[in-house]
């Protein structure tokens, strides 16, 4: 059951169109404007394209948020709700671009499963997020958006969507909230690095005892702040602006970067039936797929459930994507390792039950050919491949099929083998693995342990989750904690 806004600490606000604020008419303060009308700023922030109207002198805020994706937007809202003077800097020309294409354009805003199950669906350092998820849980995410006037619905596997089935409903409401709480937004404005203080100022690649004091824009101007939150995302889906910009910034102040790798991405294979496109376009519903690390003693890395799609390059669909973390991780440890996928096409039937049915069919329909009978259990094209792999003549009647051959067919139905080469590249992944090492981030605040005043949110960190509302929950929860913590640091709370 979805929570209503009244059951949350999130205050209910009116849901208005963004153009209510007429933000395009608002200008940044000039260099002579030393005092801002704080009441007006808190009522509504302003929006600037490309920084064209920014003052020539340095601007000062309490909190700077870099990145206008789901993590950055939530970070900015949380910081401003604490009373911090906040600016959100986005290099693209539109906020929430990745959010707008998520969930197949419907925006899977979160997942309604219990916290323990949420953590299980965050294979990339899920335990690190215990504090963030306790502070701002999936239930809080739902209450937050319901408080913005968005009706939500829960679908299969706990996935939560807006009733409108339109991602733009979520994007507009969240961006609207950004302006409502007085966040200033600079779009088409690039950050080139962090502005820091260092006990030993020098031009080396890494600084000692750094203290963040703001950011440096691409045009060399400096924007000052006591707290800076990096929420630039990873390096997947680069068309949305996630291009790994922040990794060198974090590295220069002392952070370790875990090399980015693709997750939630299709798997590749060079099996003949893949290369020949024999099974291309064939979809299987509600299967189980296991990934094994081959060797003297094969090791099962994971078993996932869901739908599967055969493609011209390998395996796709939700079940395959959920396996990709384990495939990528194994390949990173040993690029030459041998990986095998085994697909249980009928997980609802045991091996013995299926074998009994085939033997019964052999007795009751001895003249029927195997290639006409097996499609009762699996799709035609897959049946033909299985018969070929088991070295059974397709034109043989059931009476000529040996029990050992039936057992081989059953093994293929329950564990259809596909050798896995790897995954598609990072640019084609839905989610990025790797990023800023969590060992150098305080899980209670999302604050850097090596650079005072620096915070992180979302996929820029070495955390990632499955699709299905989990990864976006990571963005919202970590963003809310980072924004709150950054504001408290800046305001001395």
From TrEMBL:
The keyword Ligase is assigned to this record: no
A Pfam family per the record: HI0933_like
Domain of life: Bacteria
UniProt KW Disulfide bond keyword: no
Keywords assigned by UniProt, alphabetized: FAD, Flavoprotein
Required co-factors: FAD
Domain RsdA/BaiN/AoA(So)-like insert positions: 261-431
Limits of the RsdA/BaiN/AoA(So)-like Rossmann fold-like domain: 62-484
Gene3D superfamilies per UniProt: FAD/NAD(P)-binding domain (3.50.50.60), HI0933 insert domain-like (1.10.8.260), Translation factors (2.40.30.10)
PANTHER family: OS12G0638800 PROTEIN (PTHR42887)
UniProt name for this protein: NAD(P)/FAD-dependent oxidoreductase
